[in-house]
């Protein structure tokens, strides 16, 4: 599969317009605060963007960030501006042609930003141990439309778990299916290259994340994907695909379910881009200045991470009140209207 993917992204595709589906290429709204940062990115880098979501979580100033499958570097150069001169962004990719574009414009971006805080490494995201990256050395790891292309997703998450600092997070966008993808779709070279064939069934992704020590995957946003090419759509049949952004925190003490300890938080505000409300995930929009009840896991995601200074914390783990109301396990994505299912709390 590596050869197929390298050929697809290194030689067949010349730019975002060559894609045959809406899987790899984010058409979701870019937030206003991000637009000026993206506008500073060199057109050749931006023109070879194949991501399917936004991988710019808040509060990155001074952070060390790793981008898995960085491609030609659009997200690396956006993140470089967010981490600033005190931070660093490392991009890893296995396709020479993609990395060549990224490297070609490094000096341009360093001059524009006023600092050179990025590095690109040739490597495989299943074999991060070959790259001499120290254990527990990254605050945040991101990835944009890449994990689906990996033939060994367990190995990828194992490497992520090793490289994250305690309290760090894997914040990534990828493609998921509403059911297990049959072999005929998985083995179709174009569907695989277009990020559909290797997509995980969302339930299997959650199992995989938990198996690799990420006990409570949090869905940040999602959108249904259209297979616009008629021939490809005929091959995918009833499968439905979604682009989704999840965040996986490396935290001790996360529980398999949302348990209620009677805790609450108050967001003080002050995080850039989230002045009025802090959005942890799709089910937690925490208004500034308001007491907001949380489960034990959400508490830890705020108290034991880089977000702690922005919150006041009420309560503790001394008394358990049972399961947190509304915690469930149905299809987590906003399905097209006909199916009628509601989302779960987390
Ligand atoms: C869909 S593109 C996304 C690129 C980039 N994240 C972006 O948003 O433009 C997938 C990228 O992942 C890289 N890739 C796929 N599988 C990989 C692997 N196993 N190890 C390293 N890179 C990989 C490809 O070379 C390609 O550049």
Helix content: 25-40%
CATH superfamily of the largest domain: Vaccinia Virus protein VP39
Q: What's the CATH class of the largest domain, please?
A: Alpha Beta
Class based on secondary structure composition and strand pairing: alpha/beta
Rounded Rg: 20 Å
Strand content: 15-25%
Number of helices: 12
Number of domains: 2
Low-pLDDT ranges: 337-346
What is the element string, with H for helices and E for strands?
HHHEHEHHEEHEHHEHEHEEEEEHE
Proper CATH architecture of the largest domain: 3-Layer(aba) Sandwich
Q: Summarize the main sheet.
A: 8 strands, mixed
Q: What compounds are bound to the protein?
A: S-adenosylmethionine
What overall form do the CA principal axes indicate? Answer: globular
Mean pLDDT metric:
92
CATH topology of the largest domain: Rossmann fold
Record field, number of beta strands: 13
N- to C-terminal separation? 33 Å
Give a written overview of the molecule.
The chain is α/β, with parallel strands linked by helices and about 350 residues long. It has 12 helices and 13 strands. Strands 1, 2, 3, 4, 5, 6, 7 and 8 form an 8-stranded mixed sheet that branches. The protein has a 3-stranded antiparallel sheet with strand order 12-9-13. A two-stranded antiparallel ribbon has the order 10-11. The site of S-adenosylmethionine has 26 residues, from helix 1 and helix 4.
């Amino acid at each position: 599969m590596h050869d197929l993917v390298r050929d697809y992204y290194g030689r067949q595709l010349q730019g975002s317009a060559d894609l045959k589906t809406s899987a790899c290429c984010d058409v979701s709204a870019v937030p206003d605060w991000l637009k000026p940062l993206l506008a500073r990115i060199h057109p050749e880098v931006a023109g070879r963007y194949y991501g399917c979501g936004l991988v710019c979580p808040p509060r990155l100033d001074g952070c060390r960030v790793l981008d898995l499958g960085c491609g030609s570097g659009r997200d690396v150069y956006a993140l470089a501006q967010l981490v600033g001169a005190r931070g660093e962004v490392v991009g890893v990719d296995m396709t020479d042609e993609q990395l060549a574009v990224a490297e070609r414009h490094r000096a341009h971006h360093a001059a524009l930003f006023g600092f050179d805080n990025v590095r690109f490494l040739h490597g495989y995201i299943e074999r991060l141990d070959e790259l001499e990256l120290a254990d527990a050395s990254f605050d945040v790891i991101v990835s944009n439309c890449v994990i689906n292309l990996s033939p060994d997703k367990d190995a990828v998450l194992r490497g992520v778990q090793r490289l994250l600092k305690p309290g760090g997070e894997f914040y990534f966008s990828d493609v998921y299916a509403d059911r297990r993808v049959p072999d005929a779709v998985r083995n179709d070279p174009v569907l695989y290259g277009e990020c559909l064939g290797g997509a995980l069934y969302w339930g299997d992704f959650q199992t995989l994340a938990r198996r690799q020590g990420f006990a409570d995957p949090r869905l940040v946003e999602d959108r249904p994907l259209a297979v616009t090419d008629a021939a490809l759509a005929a091959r995918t049949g009833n499968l439905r695909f979604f682009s989704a952004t999840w965040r996986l925190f490396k935290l001790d003490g996360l529980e398999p379910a949302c348990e209620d300890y009677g805790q609450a938080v108050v967001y003080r505000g002050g995080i850039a881009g989230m002045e009025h409300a802090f959005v942890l995930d799709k089910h937690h929009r925490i208004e500034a200045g308001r007491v907001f009840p949380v489960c034990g896991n959400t508490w830890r995601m705020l108290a034991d991470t880089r977000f702690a200074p922005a919150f006041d914390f009420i309560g503790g783990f001394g008394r358990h009140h049972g399961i947190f109301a509304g915690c469930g396990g149905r299809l987590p994505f906003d399905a097209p209207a006909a199916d009628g299912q509601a989302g779960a709390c987390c």
